[in-house]
Amino acid sequence: MKSPRNLYKAFLFNFLKFLLPIGTFFTFSFWTFKSYINDLESDHLLKTGEKLVDFLVHDEDFLDNKYFGSEYIILITDSKGRILSSNIKLDNLRDISYLINLKPMPSQVQEISNYLVYVNGFPCGNSFCKTIVALSKSKIEKKVNLLLLSSLFSSIITALLIAFLSVLDIRKHLQDYELYSKELRKVALYLSHEVKTPLSIILMNMSQIKADDEVKQAIERAIKRIIKLMKNLKVLSELELKPKSITLINIKGLISELVEFYQANLHAKNLTISINHVPHVQVLSDYELIYTLFLNLLDNAVKYAKECTEIKISGELRNDRLKVFISNITDEKSSLDMEDKSYGLGLTIVDEIARRLGIQVSFKRDASLFTVVVDMQVNKEE
């Protein structure tokens, strides 16, 4: 299962991935609605002003009225521009002179200075009075800013919710995958044990089988190959475990041991293996996993090498990094493809071990020469 840190990264990635389109949608919606806000406020101001004028026309005691409300500024003036009634303290209104001097424009809202204003006249006794209803644009801006904040908040909450649900879905699939992997490892271990045992018995009794020596050798090679495959299957099934025993490993000594082990298997193809310029340096790692890594790389080199050729193993030490090169000339009929690492279970194991131990493994091809490069950190306390 992924570590909490990886899940946090997945959550952050999904959050940013969903925030962009959702944020774009809400921002577009905001700018679309923003263009209608002034029109809506103007229509509402016009209707409010018309209703107020209609009320004042039928109210003989309009001077005794108290006009409440903090959204609109309401002023009643006489024909000479004197204020008869208002719902605010006039000291708080800096642009009062602009508002008082506005001419009546029925069925229309005017934009004056920082206000939207409706002005209309109505008869009051033997004279003619004027009603002024104004709305500060700063209040409209507050509504716009509130709408913007709501859009941003909605975008963030929506993206967080989707990211959270996506991470929960990832966790569920990882749990299912972990259960499946455990069952698969059990099957691999079972097959490795059950198949290897009878094959080993057959191998030990090869001398009693009545067949030509060439046939016996072919059967023996096939059985050894299957046993090795079962061993690799067992190793692959256990690779999710962390390295158990960390120790200092002499890489040249380990390679020499492997080459000596393979000497008996080289006669069939008339191959030779040479070790040149591999420095005597130590690597701090898990011996069994490092051994398995080089075992599989050397096995592939032997398997795909052209008959009567040499497998060359060399090394290079630079800046506390050791590079080991395993080169072999491939057979023209070989299906080995460096771009396709799936041709052998051995390289699957190599990739997994390299990832676990922080080792870099790369492949190069130059005409028929195939080279594997193993790059690892050497022990700095040598």
Q: Quick check: average pLDDT?
A: 78
What percentage of amino acids are in beta strands? 15-25%
Relative helix content: 40-55%
Distance between the termini: 37 Å
Question: Rg, please?
Answer: 43 Å
What's the SSE pattern?
HEEHEEEHHEHEEHEEHEE
Describe the structure.
- With 382 residues, this protein is α+β, with helices and mostly antiparallel strands.
- Helices cover 51% and strands 21% of the residues.
- It is built from seven helices and twelve strands.
- A five-stranded antiparallel sheet has the order 2-1-5-4-3. Strands 7-9-10-12-11 form a five-stranded mixed sheet. Strands 6-8 form a two-stranded antiparallel sheet.
- The chain is rod-shaped.
- Residues 335-343 have low confidence and may be disordered.
What is the gist of this entry?
With 382 residues, the protein is of the alpha+beta class. It is 51% helix and 21% strand. The protein contains seven helices and twelve strands.
Characteristic key phrases:
alpha+beta, five-stranded antiparallel sheet, five-stranded mixed sheet, 12 strands, 21% strand
Question: What is the topological layout?
Answer:
Layout: H1 4-57, E1 73-77, E2 83-86, H2 96-100, E3 109-112, E4 115-124, E5 127-136, H3 137-204, H4 213-237, E6 246-250, H5 251-262, E7 272-276, E8 282-286, H6 287-304, E9 310-318, E10 321-329, H7 345-357, E11 360-366, E12 369-377
Parallel strand pairs: 7-9
Antiparallel strand pairs: 1-2, 1-5, 3-4, 4-5, 6-8, 9-10, 10-12, 11-12
Helix pairs in contact: 1-3, 3-4, 4-7, 5-6, 6-7
